[in-house]
Amino acid sequence: MRVHLMSGGCGFVGRNMVKRLYKTTEDTIIFIDNLMVGRHPSEWLGLEKTGQNADAEVFGDEGRLLFIKDDFRFFLRKMDQDPRYVQNTYGLDFDRFHDVYHFAAIVGGRAVIDGDPMMVALDLSIDAEFFYFICRHKPKRALYPSSSAAYPVDLQTESNAIALKESDIDFNNMGQPDMTYGWSKLTGEYLAKIAAEYYGVSIVCIRPFSGYGEDQDLTYPIPAIADRIARREDPMTVWGTGKQGRDFVHIEDVMDCILLAMDKISDGSAINIGMGRLTSFLEIIEVLKNIAGYDPEIKCLLDKPVGVHSRYCDMTHVKDRLGWEAQISMEEGMRRMYEAATKRVSQES
Q1: C or N: which end of the chain has fewer Cβ atoms within 10 Å?
Q2: With the C-alpha atoms ordered 253, 255, 256, 258, is the resulting torsion angle positive or negative?
Q3: Do 283 and 149 reside in the same domain of the chain?
Q4: Are residues 46 and 183 in the same domain?
């Protein structure tokens, strides 16, 4: 049997990957989350709990989904003490994990990255134990999600905004990444190279840009803006001037690219995941206004944190290496976001 292990399985990216793997494979997925940020599977999985296996809640008729509420680091330490801990505890007959997805992180919108940078630095601890684990237990494949925040901030200013290429991160000629979040992800990328080169681990790093999706929480900008539009705010608020831009990519496209990258990349190198398009928050609002059919005044909240001015990627390397490009257009993605926000608002009333 094939068994996958996933940290942060109840966060935004994690829960989308759990659902994708459950629908597209016959594999068993063990997903772990301390629920500090993530939501319990009963809220999003769409499956009934069918049992309890030791400390794991079992979902689905086939018993292929095992959810464990725990700090991922504590779980890894149990396996370090007993290499057969998972097999013996949950009665699973497999030799080694097939895929290990590492989505556990201290995450949040700009308010978290700027508001508590030392808490975000705990990602260094989480990642170090992840890499220590995979170098000893040798899964068949591993995924390390880095971030566009790892790119040098001096390439993302109003006067010097470029489409960021994978080669713009050079460990021999370092730039300044975005706060402690960027530093932690950059360190993770370096550890991935060490894991591949020195320990023979098959691993790929991804640098997702501004991922969004219908089930993302309101601390992130796209769902927050869609929510304000659905509520017919007037004036409509936006953080900063709204002229700052990002490369917005739908979570379904992110999932597609991740799975393809794991099939084709094993040397610890990193790839961008984005649309390759810079879009300002004012443009996002304009698209959503047109979908909703109303035209509010725009109120800029200049006292809010906004991060770098412009962050978007060059997708040439990914197109050449993987033959991949995003399929969900900005207009289609925003329509989905508006419909999800409208449904949520309607259910509240």
Answers
A1: C
A2: positive
A3: no
A4: yes
